[in-house]
């Protein structure tokens, strides 16, 4: 009987390639493609997971209900608010930190490690940690704010007031993921050849002119890549919001992922939730595709 090694030697290159790639393709189909197809199929039904009888195909009725539901648009608005401000602050602060760290100084590596620490923690740990900090009576956050304003620490609650709860989540997510943006920007800054700056200095270009004509254009693809990564991740943000506010107070911080979870696992409207998931998938996929095309144009300049 021939050994496995001898039998493998008799296979063609195409067969060997399929031998290695086949398991990965099978896992991709089993974990990603099949659930997607099944979800699309359920989105056209009135299926409920806790009552699997009397299932009917109702066409596009679920999609119509979702797109005409005012509560859906409120959750979209909350998600858009969260997306815009977290990305804005993370890119702004992340690039500033990367620019400073790129300047060689004593203790550079130590400060880089300290700054990166928040993104090493799990969202559950971060959520519990900041929930404690946000407590009006004992939380350090309120005492820090009132130290500069001179007010009463218990006069406001970051996660208990409608006007402040969205910003409480923005602050925590910015604190946690700004280091990720910083690392991407730092990679972009260190990829710029020193010879370009030396040539600019020979032409007597000021530091400000070098920043706007060399640094920004060459780091821009890295910045856009960071925005893409953080945009996709924050669009499906769930655990951090649940730990901090649970979607409250009321439904002020109820982002799309929390609303989807409630429809699927609290109200058990599985068909409706499947249609909701398909709409979110198409939205993210469409926006990401347009954004990637813009990113490729910037890279090809």
Describe this structure in words.
The longest helix has 33 residues. Helix 2 crosses helix 13, helix 4 packs across helix 8 and helix 8 crosses helix 10. The protein contains 13 helices and no strands. It is globular, with a radius of gyration of 25 Å. With 301 residues, the chain is mainly α. 25% of the residues are buried. It has a single domain, classed as MetI-like (MetI-like fold), CATH 1.10.3720.
Could you report the average pLDDT, rounded to the nearest whole number?
88
What's the overall geometry?
A: globular
Q: What is the CATH class? A: Mainly Alpha
Number of strands: 0
Number of helices: 13
Work out the radius of gyration. Answer: 25 Å
What is the CATH homology-level superfamily?
Answer: MetI-like
Main sheet, how many strands, which sense, barrel? none
Which residues form runs of ≥5 with pLDDT under 50?
none
Strand content: under 5%
* CATH architecture call: Orthogonal Bundle
The topology string of helices and strands comes to HHHHHHHHHHHHH
